[in-house]
Each structure stands twice: as C-alpha cells, then as structure tokens.
Design goal:
Shape: globular
Number of helices: 7
Distance between the termini: 29 Å
Structural class: alpha+beta
Strand order of the largest sheet: 1-7-4-9-2
CATH architecture: Sandwich
Number of domains: 1
Strand content: 5-15%
C-alpha cells in the first residue's frame, strides 16, 4: 500500500505524516498482551532510567508481536513509498515506549531533541552520532487528549524551514556532538490519535514526549529505519535531508540518482514556507 500524493506532500512540508488505523486492533492487542505480561513479571527499579532512554520489556522487543506491527502491516510498504521500494530491511526489533502518569502540577512543557545523541543511558557510543533515515511510531493506546505522554513534534524544524539542515551545512554535522543546535523553534504539536495509528517522521524532525497527567499509561512502539545505503554516507544525510528518500526525489525536485551510490545528484528544492496553523 502506497501513501497518497497528499500524504507525501504533508510529509515534505511538515516532516511527518500520521496514518489512521493502519495496524489492526488484533495486532495491537497482541503487542499489549506481550508488554503487559512482561511488566507483570516485574521491572528492576535500578533499570528504570535505562528503560526510559532505550526500551521497556527488552526481552519482548524482537518478538513477532512487536516486529509484526511494522513488518506485517501496510505500514512497511508505506515507508517504502517514501524511502524507495526495496530499500528497507524488515525490522528486527522495536522500542517499547511506555510513559507512566506523573504528579507534577502544572505539567512541564515538552522538551525536544534529535535522536542519536549520546547520553550515559541511551546506548549511543560517546563521540558518535547514531542517525538513521526514518522514525516510525505506532500508538498502542488511545490518546484523545494532550498531556497524556503524547509523542510531540516541532513541524517547522524539518523541511518546512530546513532549520537543522541549514545549521549543519553551516556548522558541520559533527556540531550535534556539542548538543542541540541553537535555532529559533516553531510551536510543538502533541500527536493525538487512537491505538493502531502510526506516524512516520524524518530523522531531522525534532521530537519529544509530553508530560503524562492522565490516569493512564501511554503505550507505543517505535522503529528506527535506515535506507539500505545509509551507512555509506551517515554524515552527508545531515546536510542533504532528502538523500535517503528516493520515493520523494521527484516531488522535491531532484534527480533520482543519489550521492554515495555511484552517481551525482541535483540539490533538492526547498519547500516553500506556508503559514503556521
């Protein structure tokens, strides 16, 4: 199943696209059953900081109940329609991301980041940037309201204004090793939706997690996908944001050939700014 032209254009302009009901309820329930069984076995308090930064229920992450949310649903071919047919490997595991209710009143504002930056608990090797092509999230619980542990995005940070691409062109991709770029940010948007909805994000879309002041645990799974050739040019994608996105090359006004794959490429045309909603 392919994304529509309207959905692709939304991705180009905002850096993400949300897809309703792409994962069947029976598969959502199977994932929840596996996760809740693991949680019921108990979690070591000393490991909670690591679980928050990497994944909860690590023994479940590579099971079909989790990987099937991407591999065995139309979501996989939708990702290929953006990155390129035949360019992706099936997921070998997914991050299980739980967000438990907090007691802070009033709730804090969401904070954002780019993935792949080192911290003592997130598994990224110090002195490296663990970037990739696409971040794909699947909601496993309903999120009708904000401030319920919602996945949160800053839409203007990716192609709409090309903020980080321009910053890395000027300061070099390695500048991310020094922390998040100091750029003027748009307003964040908390993603609401229902269990079975998915969101596909560009790597350079700034994102984070909203506080959870609801009475419920927020359940979600995230997959980090790479174009098959991504590791041949991991720094180049920081300054050329459409390099890995072969399914969008025509739409963004560049030739189909890609740097790092033995051919030359035209620079993508920047998306025209639109009025913020």
């Amino acid at each position: 199943m392919q994304l529509s032209n309207v959905q692709k254009q939304h991705f180009i302009e905002h850096g993400f696209v949300q897809i309703s009901g792409v994962v069947p309820r029976v598969m959502v329930d199977a994932a929840l059953r596996a996760i809740n069984h693991s949680v019921g076995e108990g979690m070591e308090p000393a490991q909670m900081t690591k679980f928050r930064a990497q994944t909860y229920c690590p023994e479940v992450t590579g099971t079909p109940a989790i990987t099937g949310l991407l591999n065995d649903t139309p979501l996989f071919s939708m990702c290929e329609s953006l990155i390129g047919e035949g360019t992706l490997k099936r997921a070998g595991g997914g991050q299980i991301a739980l967000r438990f209710p907090g007691l802070q009143d009033p709730p804090r504002k969401p904070g954002g980041h780019l993935d792949g930056m080192y911290s003592p608990t997130n598994g990224v090797k110090e002195g490296t940037i663990g970037n990739f092509t696409a971040l794909v999230g699947v909601l496993l619980s309903d999120l009708p309201d904000e401030n319920a542990g919602n996945f949160t995005v800053w839409p203007g940070t990716h192609p709409h204004l090309h903020l980080f691409e321009k910053y890395f062109q000027e300061h070099g991709p390695e500048s991310l090793l020094n922390g998040m770029p100091k750029v003027e940010l748009p307003q964040p948007r908390q993603i609401t939706g229902r269990a079975g909805d998915a969101v596909i994000c560009h790597y350079q879309l700034m994102h984070g997690i909203a506080p959870n002041v609801s009475p419920h645990i927020r359940y979600a799974t995230f997959f980090r996908l790479k174009h098959r050739d991504h590791d041949t040019h991991p720094m180049e994608v920081m300054t050329d944001i459409w390099l890995d996105w072969e399914g969008l090359h025509e739409a963004v006004g560049r030739k189909q050939e890609a740097v790092g794959r033995g051919q030359t490429t035209a620079k993508p045309k920047a998306a025209k700014p639109k009025t913020k909603k």
